[in-house]
Amino acid sequence: MRTLVFIPAWNEEGSLPAVIAGVRESLPEANLLVIDDGSTDATAAQAREAGALVASLPFNQGLGAALQTGYLHALREGYDFCAHLDADGQHPPAEVARLLEEVYEDRADLVIGSRYRDPGPVESDDYKPTLSRRIGTGVFRFFLTLATRQRFTDTTSGMRAANRRVMALFSERYSPDFAEIESLQLAVREGLRVEEVPVRMLERAGGTSFLTPVRSAFFIFKGMIVLLVGQFRPREAKAER
Amino acid sequence: MSLTSLAAAQAPQVHLTSQTRIIAAVLAIAFMVLILDLIRRDRLQERYSVVWFVAGLGMLIGAAFPGLLELVADAMGVRDTNVALFSIVLLLLLGLALNFSVIMSRQAAQITRLAQERALEKAREQARSGENGSESERQRLES
Fold this sequence. Notes:
The complex is a heterodimer.
Chain A lengths: L2 E7 L6 H11 L4 E7 L5 H7 L3 E5 L5 H14 L4 E4 L8 H12 L5 E5 L16 H18 L11 E4 H9 L6 H11 L4 E5 L14 H18 L11
Parallel strand pairs in A: 1-2, 1-4, 2-3, 5-7
Antiparallel strand pairs in A: 4-6, 5-6
Chain B lengths: L2 H8 L7 H23 L5 H19 L1 H11 L4 H49 L1 H12 L1
Helix pairs in contact in B: 2-3, 3-4, 4-5, 5-6
């Protein structure tokens, strides 16, 4: 049984080495792939120095394309399971191990780490969402739940674990610029079992969120259109289950 | 400007004068020559040139048989031929622009896949060449 953990990284030289070290410690069995999404800083060099395999996209392609690269690699290299987490240090690698446990046990095809589901007592370095983030989360939660008839709390979570069924689907069809939400809708529509697991997330260790209020509004608007269109996409209906 | 010419300009049916017809025909021919020249110099691929060639031909036909345009305007229920002409051209351009967006999207997807393939190929190369290196790295970490 082989597991690939991949980390999409775009100019994350500040936080990436610690994340790699954390994954090594929490998931010693897993192979590690860093997808460098056209970084202009030392991200790729640092990942290589830390001993990770690096797939460097020649130019910035967006998070969706970077994640798809990881799924493609996992599928082609014959990995049984894969997981990914953000490079900014928000995702504790120990929590990724818990997500993987769910797919190992075949309780789901795709497992999402949710920072909002059944939150425990808040600790000082825990993740605290900003107001615009909370509004966006609420809107997406509502519409994705409406579209999939399944309860989702953390629709944009970048901490996920998956099996080969998901790899096959996502390596072929993964929206390049609205990856997180559309992929959940797609997976549910294709009849895959998607499950959320409550996880702890931390405040980011490096870099800044790309969300400003105007961008957030645009992001939300785009997301709603994407979800609406997604409802009318043709089903592939080849998920062999 | 005299009152009579003003009245003429406001008349519902504006007939093309032979002067404008000649200008339109010359422009249409020049346009098609330009398309041919772009193909000849490899600046335009044949498969994207057909639509422009058809547009040039349309211009030429319109200049040669202005009666055709009035026929079309009548069929559309538009009294002013100019309005009919403008709406037809506008719709065609809209369709063309959309067509380009579709082509652009397809090519963007192809570029993304190409970038991914190249990135993964590089990673496999690293895995092959660095097999010993990463092994010693592991041992160094474990010791």
